[in-house]
Structure formats: C-alpha cells, structure tokens
TrEMBL record:
Record-linked Pfam families: ECH_1
Organism: Orlajensenia leifsoniae
Annotated family: Belongs to the enoyl-CoA hydratase/isomerase family.
The name this protein goes by in its record: Enoyl-CoA hydratase/isomerase family protein
Keywords, ordered alphabetically: Isomerase
GO molecular function terms noted in the UniProt entry: isomerase activity
Keyword check for Cytoplasm: no
Coiled-coil regions listed in the entry: none
C-alpha cells in the first residue's frame, strides 16, 4: 500500500494525511491513485462520521508534481488521465456526506487549492500562504479549482488569484473567505492548528453526526436545482432526521432546559 497519503480511522474519525513532505506534498500518479482509493473507502464506510485532513512537513500541498510531470508522466493525454484520477477522489470526498475539516499548516499552491477546498471547514496557520501559480507555468486549473475557488471567494477574486501571480497571506485568505479561521502558532505552539482542527472534528462526532452529513449534502445539492426542489429536499430530510434517536435525545434535552 502506498504511503504517499495516509489513512487512519479511529472512533469514527478518518484522519487523512498528505505524506510527501520532500516534494511539498505535490501529487504524483501514485498519490493520485491513493487519494481516489481513500476517498472511495471513506464514502463507503458506515463507521466513519467525520474526516480530518492534514499534511506533513512545511507545506500543505504544492498541487501537481510538475517536475515529475515533465520527466516521467508523459504527454498531454497522460496528464489528463492523471487529472481524472485526482478528480474521481474529489468527487468521493465532496459527495460522501461526511463533514471534512482541513488543518493547513503551510503553503498551498496550484491544485493544492482544490485539495484544500474539498474540506468544509478550513483551519489555517497564521504562517500559511495561498497562490494559484497556474499562470506561472502556462497551465490551466485542475483539481476542481475552477469550481471550488469561485464558490469559496467569488468569481472576481478567483480570476485574480488564477490569472496573476498574487499570493495571499493567511489573514488575506480569511478576509477573502478562502479559509474559515486562522490560528496563531506563536501563542498556541506548533501543533495549534492540528489541535483546533481535531477539536472541530471531535465536536461533529459528539453531536448528531448524521445531521451534519445531511446538512452538507443539502448545501451542495442546492446548486443547479430550483428553489422548490431544494425546499422539497429540505422537508424530506428534516422529517427523516426528526425520527432518529440522535435527534430525539437532543430535542428532549433542549425541551427540558
């Protein structure tokens, strides 16, 4: 089994770690296949209620491994096939119905933005940075960036980040809505980002886990549907949630206050 991306499942939490620190966690074909396979496993396992996504080393993800692309991956058709494998993994993660929190400890570039934006909540170190870099190497967005980036920060800012060499600081990324919160490493220690992200994941697992997953599904499914279709889905979903033991216990506790 490849160790380019690690998976550990404990007490309902799937911990996914990008693990190519010597290449700034850039994604090569081996890592792409591992990403797809982990995404499928998480989507199919009923014992997983939440996902914690992080990376080893000083960078979160530098996107595709451009050096390997240029020397061993092959021609354009091979690059497209490589992207298809990554994208299959993205679909599994996005459509799994499992809430995902990302702990971003360092630089994010290129397709790394797409990997990061597979998460629903993003906790970043104050020392993290964010850049597209596609324009610097004459390539176009992949890894879902053309969809996920404007979804997160709006089209005008997504175009600026993609078509220029602009690099965002963590505070700028927070202001733009690219990340959810920024953690001070200087006051919280080197593992402050990891601790905060894990606390979020554990709060999901301690709550009505199924409801979190359905809330995520409703939000994502709302795109491209009519308002009435979304309302009908909401009615069916909240009706189903109301009858679950998790909801009944929490409703009873709320009512007794």
């Amino acid at each position: 089994m490849s160790d380019t991306i690690l998976l550990e499942v404990t007490d309902g939490l799937a911990h996914v770690t990008l693990n190519r620190p010597e290449r700034l966690n850039a994604i090569n074909p081996e890592a792409a296949e591992r990403w797809r396979d982990i995404g499928r496993e998480i989507a199919e396992r009923d014992d997983i209620g939440a996902v914690l996504f992080d990376a080893t080393g000083r960078a979160f993800c530098a996107g595709g491994d451009v050096r390997e692309m240029g020397t061993t991956v092959g021609d354009g058709s091979a690059i497209a096939a490589h992207a298809d494998v990554i994208h299959a993994g993205h679909v599994f993660f996005r459509e799994s119905g499992k809430p995902i929190v990302a702990a971003v400890q360092g630089a994010v570039a290129g397709g790394g933005l797409g990997f990061m934006l597979c998460a629903d909540v993003i906790v970043a170190s104050e020392h993290a940075s964010f850049a597209s870099k596609y324009s610097d190497i004459g390539l176009t967005p992949d890894c879902g960036v053309s969809t996920l980036l404007p979804e997160a920060i709006g089209m005008r800012r997504a175009l600026e980040l993609t078509l220029t060499s602009r690099r965002l600081t963590a505070s700028e990324a927070l202001d733009w809505g690219l990340v959810t919160e920024v953690v001070s490493v200087d006051t919280g220690g080197a593992d402050a980002v990891a601790r905060r992200a894990r606390a979020i994941a554990e709060a999901w697992l301690a709550g009505a886990t199924g409801a979190f997953g359905q809330a995520k599904r409703l939000m994502l499914a709302s795109r491209g549907r009519t308002f009435q279709e979304n309302l009908d889905d909401e009615a069916r979903t909240i009706g189903a949630a109301f009858g679950t033991p998790e909801a009944q216990a929490r409703i009873a506790a709320f009512s007794s206050r």
